[in-house]
Amino acid sequence: MFTLDKYVEQDYSVVYFHCGLTSKNKPPLSWLWRAYKAFDRKYKKNLKALYLVHPTNFIRIVWQMLKPAISVKFGRKMMYVNYLHELQQHLNLDKLCIPDAVLE
Length: 104
What we know:
By secondary structure, this protein is an alpha/beta fold. It has one domain (2-103): CATH 3.40.525.10. Helices cover 39% and strands 16% of the residues. It has a 3-stranded parallel beta sheet. The mean pLDDT is 86. InterPro entries: CRAL-TRIO_dom, CRAL-TRIO_dom_sf. It holds the Pfam family CRAL_TRIO_2.
């Protein structure tokens, strides 16, 4: 994670494309929770937005379950994006490496 230090000293956004996951390659909830806890305050502080692109109902339910344990401030930074044109309202898509499976 130390390689991210130079990026998180300024405002930044994270885009998560929820695509191509199956029961075989989907991380367990415990891993997601550990990943959240592993991020030091400095990583959360300058995060301006976390975009979840193509969220499934499962993701929405998990988020609702985890919400009470996550800081309110962090929770406000999370946004569901159903379509790429919605993401384009917030970010320049030309600057993103979007997987082909997401573009289809």
